[in-house]
């Protein structure tokens, strides 16, 4: 949607918002809004479950949690922006001129823009548009920041635990949020061409995939060296844990990148189909909710492909037995041996970690 603010006969300003308005009967809009809100409530329960499980079963470095967990809470900011639009659609919030139908995410046709002589009453619509841009690009830049953090951890494996403290995640958070806010404002005030707006997520995805390949090769090299009985380099228990953690994060990262790219591809295909009128405007509801409901596929991918999280999720939130996962049954002696070995390694890891921090 493009809002064209006409200041006078010679100058005008454009505001680009990733929001949609429909020319639908009021009763239909009410029903659709109720269904959407119900889906958002369901999605919020899923988000809470994901955060609870990942915090209860901590499998990754603290810095990764500092970077990743806030993204799920930003989803509530996104939904707040969507609720503002629902309030306008249902006339809880009103402006002096009819908004009309706007199902094109971008257009250069003045006739398809919302042309106004003042912005009175549109402030919340502009805020909603900014919040949606901000969420999209925060997600993109935070994923890149997480990959950068794991790259730094792998390159500085000798002293990462003892020297980084909170400096690295703080720098990455500030940088990613600065980029997110800057790009969001630039898009809102239409300072970036629609084609150029695709560059941040394309570049971020390419860099993330390249970094994942580098991390996989580097940490597999570390793992082979660790298993080599005649190795010359000494790896502490904390460093061995870090190598395992990096490889686990990379395996999960591949699946998450595929899931995110699939969501972006579906969203892009839907937007293109709407712009070229291949599908009717009613399908725009499905297209835009690919964004608002994206924690469902992304969170499920993370939960289901990490056995420890999957087990805890099923135990805590699924009380029925229709969903079962094949698990290898080990003899009791083997289980006890593995448990004792894990306890010893864990105790040693934390002792070394404590010494490195003091």
The gist of it:
Its main location: membrane. The protein is mainly α and 358 residues long.
CATH superfamily of the largest domain: Rhodopsin 7-helix transmembrane proteins
Major beta sheet summary: 3 strands, mixed
Strands ordered across the widest β-sheet: 2-1-3
Mean pLDDT: 80
Helical residue percent?
55-70%
Q: What would you say the CATH architecture of the largest domain is?
A: Up-down Bundle
Order of helices and strands: EEHHEHHHHHHHHH
CATH topology of the largest domain: Rhopdopsin 7-helix transmembrane proteins
Q: In angstroms, what is the radius of gyration?
A: 24 Å
Organism: Caenorhabditis elegans
Keywords: Membrane, Receptor, Transmembrane, Transmembrane helix
Membrane topology: Multi-pass membrane protein
Family: Belongs to the nematode receptor-like protein sre family.
